[in-house]
Structures are given as structure tokens and as C-alpha cells.
Specification:
- With 59 residues, this protein is mainly alpha-helical.
- It is built from 2 helices and no strands.
- It has a domain of 33 residues.
- Keywords: Membrane, Transmembrane, Transmembrane helix.
Length: 59
């Protein structure tokens, strides 16, 4: 398209730029929200439920 200087060249460039900016904003927001996840059950030393513990009860 750039070799022929098509009238669609400028439009295509703007559409591509717009989609790129929207994609970047969505990825940035996902990263921001993902960084706010806290797993307090892991970090505060809470006991592990017996069904998930590695120790087996022997009766």
C-alpha cells in the first residue's frame, strides 16, 4: 500500500494505531488488577485444611 500511495494507507495506519493503543491499555489494566490480588491464606501462616495437608492420618 505504501508503494502505490493508496488512499487507504493513512486510514489503515490510524486504525492500526488505534487498535494498538486499545490493546496496550487493556493489557496494562489487566496487569494492574492482577497485581492487587493478595493471597492472605498463604502469607499470614494460616493452617492448611486437613484435606490439603501432606500428612496423612493413620488410625
Amino acid at each position: 500500500m505504501t508503494i502505490k500511495q493508496s488512499p487507504l494507507t493513512r486510514t489503515t495506519a490510524f486504525v492500526t494505531l488505534f487498535i494498538s493503543i486499545i490493546s496496550f491499555l487493556l493489557v496494562a489494566r489487566t496487569g494492574y488488577l492482577g497485581s492487587q490480588i493478595r493471597h492472605t491464606e498463604i502469607t499470614n501462616g494460616a493452617p492448611v485444611p486437613s484435606e490439603y495437608s501432606e500428612e496423612e492420618d493413620e488410625d
